[in-house]
Amino acid sequence: MLGDIAIDVPSTSQIHRQLVCKDHEARAISINPSVHAFFVEVARPSLTDPTGDLERLMAALEKDWQLSNLVCDLAITRSLPEVLRTANWQVTVAVRGSTEIVAVSAGLKESLYGVAIDVGSTTIAAHLCDLSSGEVLASAGRMNPQIRYGEDLMSRVSYIMLNSGGEAELIKAVRGAISELLIETTAKARLRPLDIVEIVIVGNPIMQHLVLGLNPIHLGTAPFTLTSDAATSVRARDIGIDISPGGYAYVLPCIAGHVGADAAAVLLAEAPYDRDEISLLIDVGTNAEIFLGNRDRILAASSPTGPAFEGAQISSGQRAAPGAVERVRIDHDTLEPRFKVVGCDVWSDDAAFNDQLPVTGVSGICGSGIIEAVAELFLAGVVNAEGVITPEAAARSKRIVRQERTFTYILVEGEPGVRIEQNDIRAIQLAKAALYAGVRLLMDKLGVTRVQRIRLAGAFGANIDVKYAMILGMIPDCDLSNVSSAGNAAGTGARIALLDRHARQLIEQQVRAIEKIETAAEDSFQDHYVSAMGIPHQFDPFTELRKLVEVPITKPATTGRRRRKRTR
Length: 568
Description:
The protein is α/β, with parallel strands linked by helices. It is built from 17 helices and 22 strands.
């Protein structure tokens, strides 16, 4: 029988392995974890004092540390006799929130350990931290194995809907990846997963549901209802993750059906609620999470940008693996390009370029590369404001060739080569228009026409050149000196929640105060979307951008033309 087939190539066998860019960032964080260590010397039992081991441990904690009425999980109680006797009755007790014993270790342990985990739809990252100092001891990342069930979140929800027991497969996959990261990070620090007393997890709503073992199918259709949007504390073993037997997993709250705990972590890391100026925060991904506001009011929305920014739906597209073009510059007169690829430190016009290329050679183009390529083609007059490679441009360079009824720009010659096709430009336009429309919708709701500060979060936001993002019209006009990368803000927010229990109360309070805007329910979103298809925009003048870059003058489309686009 012949039919469709799905081939899953494990990462260890891949030549073009994904570059997971989610390193931790140095950040001043208040250290006040929910789990603290207490060293005690427990009185030995005798014939005249046959009190149980647990009761004598409790008595020592109350005597030395004034900790009373503690509870202890049965799994810890089972191991207590052996631990006490092996340790010669001197142990370190990990107590969570002054109410519960979560671990008992032999001897004096000055440090306890926790892990902050950012579960993305494409990648998963983990940061092992010393809870007493806040130091990051090890970090690791890997591809989310759920990709085999669908590139984007809705494809995975569809898989669950169409396959009985599909949610169990996705749950097992994501939990398995988390467990592997715990093994990897603790091994780097010469520890064991059993040394971890707490983990903090952030992720988009669908990932969060699957980690917790909840079926996310209702997030696949309107009104996109969450099973629960509250913060969750649960024993890690209850969600299939092995750490210290009494250890907990804390999961940050979700904000809305498509604005999850990862977005809440970004909010915690960037803290726009402590600022006077109007800040715009964008976590760019398959869905872009957007925040707009200041200490007076904050709005949030999710905009369906699709996977084009990650290299999907692009003819030569790929993720950011060695060999992928990540930077592009095009001579505006000759239309000759130069470029950089992942895994090579020099540009293509450098004599050492071929010698330093990865073994893969130039294998494709990733998200940051396609954005710069399209923006450069626009600045060079090859692509017009409507996103079309013009016939006139073909007369200027042999790199522009006809492809049926459209034209293609050859960025890298040879095989496999890299080509920028008309459909590639259209895919980027659709993605950037959705992002810009979501931002403009929030600006309308907040009653502002300009933003004063823009922060781009996530691995994509960390690698994109903000100038080219503005040239394409991905983000609104703003002084470029006030536009910057927030790096892995979701991972930073997860570390803050891991190391400071008061931050958990703060973000739970802030999330309740956020105004959620559902783009699908707003009629004006479609109007903004159509207008944002233009490069950089059909109507917005981008005056700040024009102070720094010579942007081609474009004529606004007529009302009739705009109506025809909307009808399509």
